[in-house]
Amino acid sequence: VLVVAGTEATAITLEWALSLLLNNPHILKKAQDELDYH
Predict the structure, then answer these.
(1) In what helix (H) or strand (E) does residue 27 lie, and over which residues does it extend?
(2) What SS3 class is residue 4?
(3) Which one of 7, 8, 21, 38 is separated from 14 by 20 to 30 angstroms, measured CA to CA?
(4) 1 in helix, strand or coil?
(5) Closest alpha carbon to 18 in 36, 31, 1
(6) Distance CA 32, CA 25 (A)
(7) Number of structural domains, the chain?
(8) How far apart, in whole angstroms, are the C-alpha atoms of residue 12 and residue 19?
(9) Contact criterion met (CB below 8 Å) for 31 and 21
(10) 31: which residues sit within 8 A by CB, 6+ positions away?
(11) Which phi-psi region, left, alpha or beta, contains residue 25 (left: φ > 0; alpha: ψ -120 to 50)?
(12) Domain limits at 30?
């Protein structure tokens, strides 16, 4: 049960992060540039 709860919390966090990035294109561009740099 604890493993499932931990996995679900991680999935929800990733979903929120992706939705925020997709709704803020300038932030998404900054993140892409940062990943390309490294």
Answers:
(1) helix 25-37
(2) helix
(3) 38
(4) coil
(5) 31
(6) 10
(7) 1
(8) 11
(9) yes
(10) 21
(11) alpha
(12) 1-37
DSSP conformation letters of 7-24: HHHHHHHHHHHHHHHHH-
Cα–Cα distance measured from residue 3 to residue 8, given in angstroms and rounded to the nearest whole number: 9
One pLDDT digit (tens) per residue for the chain, 38 residues: 567 667 888 889 999 999 999 999 999 999 999 999 87
How far, in Å, CA of 14 to CA of 19, rounded? 9
- Is 0.85 topped by the overall pTM? no
What confidence score (pLDDT) does residue 1 get? 55
How long is the chain?
Answer: 38
Residue type, 13: T
